[in-house]
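Students often ask what a holo structure prediction actually looks like on paper. The answer is less mysterious than it sounds. You provide the chain, you provide the ligand, and the output is a string of discrete structure tokens encoding the 3D arrangement of the protein together with manganese (II) ion.
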Amino acid sequence: MGKLNWYDMREFLNFLEKQNDVLRIKEEVDPDWEVNGINRIALQEFGPCLIFEKIKGADYPLVTNLITTDNRFLWSLGIEKWSDFNDEWMRRTEKLIPPVTVKNAPCQEEIIEEKNIDLNKICNVKWHELDKRPFPGTLSISITKDPDTGGLNAGIYRMETQGKNQLGWGAPEYTHGRQNYMKYESMGKPMPMAVVTGVDPITEIVGATRTPPGVDEFELAGALRQAPLEMVKCKTIDIEVPATAEWVFEGYLYPGAREHEGTEWFGEYTGHYGEARLLPYFVIKLITHRKKPIYQGTREQWFPSESFYTNGRSSQAEAYRTIKKLVPGIIDMRCNVAYEAIVKIKKLFKGHPQQVIDAVWGSTYGRYKHVIVVDEDTDIWDYESVHWALSTRVKADRDVTIAPRRAGQWLDPASSLREKGWQTGMGIDATMPTEEYEFWGDKVPKTVDDPETVARTRAKWGAKLRWK
Ligand SMILES: Cc1cc2nc3c(=O)[nH]c(=O)nc-3n(C[C@H](O)[C@H](O)[C@H](O)COP(=O)(O)O)c2cc1C
Ligand SMILES: [Mn+2]
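The corresponding structure tokens follow.
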């Protein structure tokens, strides 16, 4: 169910409404605690998508939890079941599909001039108890251009309100967005940027996907949709944005300009509060939006969260594609939104699992510090099964590789402030050590699967043994 090429967020919302998967909150709610509380509860219980129609002090409605359940994620992409997901992603994105530029676009139906911009009227939500300021940017996509290649980049980075038209920009140096800024900064030039929010679900997903460098996320969106995305040129800067976005902020980041996030902590996708940082900031010069625009945001937290789906699962699919191109025998891959990757292989040679571990560390953007490699008979979609392999096939002095001083992520709470950005890799080969048994001429232990007996029993007992 679902489909590939949603026209806009509204079409997806209408579909969700028909599935009885939207809750409209018409009562006025408090942006300081109540939006947080309702989201915290709804997320944890795999609740519906939420539309807050009246937030105290704000003039516009807010959508949250658009893609925070298995169903809503798979509907976004028109994929039926998880077991198809990695391969379907790979198949569709074999060839990227560039967007088309249109002249008139819904996202430019209305305009707010610089002097009339007041972010607090647009989104004034504090997503967690210890956030001291509103963070309108949780699901807002920053669109920048590489000044060398002209290629577009899309990324979601946290943005806090620092003034009526100023937002902090939480993009660390390892993101492509920040790398574009670093190029402008070294030329001493301001970087034009557009920030969009309230987009069709595939655009949201690609904004959160960790791709190899140089990939234009809107071409990736076209591939996932199997049809080009419609985009329109901004009014004041040379950047294209998705034509059906609800909100578009046009503006600049200036070279050398930094401001500390005016809070001590911000709740993050690791499920912990992350430290506030000294960051570049975005100055908005013009806002365009649709008629009756809907703002979009989300509450960062541990699983289940919007990051888990749109960043975790999509980046997993990208990592799967990369690894499959580099190492033979890769069957499937599961990554969480934080820092773990589990890879299922058909072991072909000595050191094969270790090569997989090295490849994950060296070639993927997800910064998966822990890599677990398992055999074909292990079900990576069932953590019990993975732990069975870990506890029965691993001899730690032989199978665990520790690799210090790896590139990590800023927000990993396992590293203290002094070590932020660094991580220690741990690779675990949880495949059966067949090569050792074979070396000694011994038989490799088999699993107690007993397929012949199972088949024989099913043939005789048939329907009587169907419990599901
Ligand atoms: C809700 C949400 C919030 C996110 N916030 C941040 C953030 O504050 N900083 C960050 O580096 N990445 C954040 N991400 C992940 C990035 O969007 C993701 O890594 C993306 O691929 C970066 O794009 P880029 O490499 O093209 O710059 C967030 C993702 C989601 C879904
Ligand atoms: Mn990118």
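Residues 9-303 form a domain with the Pnp Oxidase; Chain A fold (CATH 2.30.110.10).
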